[in-house]
Amino acid sequence: MDQHIQTSAVLADVRYEIRGQLANHAMELEKRGYEIISLNIGNPGVFGFRTPETMRLAMIENLAQAEPYCHQQGIFPAREAVVMQQQDRGVLDVTADEVFIGNGVSELIDLSLRALLNPGDEVLVPSPDYPLWSAAVALNGGKAVHYRCRRENAFVPHAADLEKLVSPRTRAIVIINPNNPSGAVYDHDTLADIVAVAEKHGLVIMGDEIYDQMVYDEAEFVPLATLVKNTVCLTFSGLSKVYRACGYRVGWCVFSGDIDSAREYIHGMELLAALRLCSNVPGQWAVQTALGGFQSIRDLVAPGGRLYQSRQAIVDRVAASDNLTVHKPMGAMYAFVQLAPRFDGVLDDQAFALELLEKYHVLVAPGSSFNTIYTDHFRVTTLPDTDTIDVVFDRIEDCLAQHV
Predict the structure, then answer these.
(1) Most C-beta atoms within 10 A of its C-beta, which of 17, 192, 290, 358?
(2) Single pTM value for the model
(3) How many domains would you assign to the chain?
(4) 209-260 pLDDT, tens per residue?
């Protein structure tokens, strides 16, 4: 008898096309012998960026201590290192008891939403967003309500737009800064205005700051937790991007702000963390060395550094194009590029990405993958070297020329 096993209905609201059908198609093409330039994921190791040697050594030297399970919130040296970083930034109301180490930020996003949401609760999520946030809200019974980060405002949100979306079911506001996919870096006043909305309505603030030290030119990163006093703030960061250690799967979540009102919430996180026993232990031994050592990311994002030069190469190529525009990314490792108006009704982001992959062997992420209401953007990572970027944009121009 034929049997059709259906998946959970909750998956209908879950999208993660960054590793979806286009990425699978790229793998099929590679199996057939084609060389694909994959720019759909911010994965530094693939592009030759190494984890700092001191971090590797710290992990190796402590392997003997990494064999047993550790505390469900993480090893103490790692959590204490996170506390010290927060205190250096001016967040003084944090102890190791308010820090959770997880298998990357991804796991901690899931745990924090699971501990918070009841069915039908709403979370304000940016558009464009990193789609894991919208997916995790849906998987935990909630509803992602997207607030616009408008292109005409360089993808920086307005607090007034957020407040219009607050309802009796709203539980939290997600802020991704520096932003993925747009590369926007939010100024102090913008963040303070959003915090004021959250404090006024008693909403939890969730700050995704995985790119916290990856800023360029005059952009300044403002730690969200330094602005929050009268509500609960969760700060998410980790080793994956700034320290180029994606495969270590080490992230952290820090509770701050009105800690007293968060005690039950923190206990819920403890319970969920205990149910998965603990996160990857070997990688945790790299945290103290990473946060307390030389911050090599500063050289990479400064003029002349590889990340700075690659970003500039993309900006220059787009500026020279009649087919593309982009707001100069001021942080993170992505550029969110827009197709010129001449392609409206001719080529949307999905069709463009598919044609670019099949005919020109370049993989990008369509902009609509990031929960936008428009379909004329695509995201590329700024990780390749400048020579590769030139090859990529030559192919993009050749692709678009067929439709001019």
Answers:
(1) 290
(2) 0.94
(3) 2
(4) 999 999 999 999 999 999 999 999 999 999 999 999 999 999 999 999 999 9
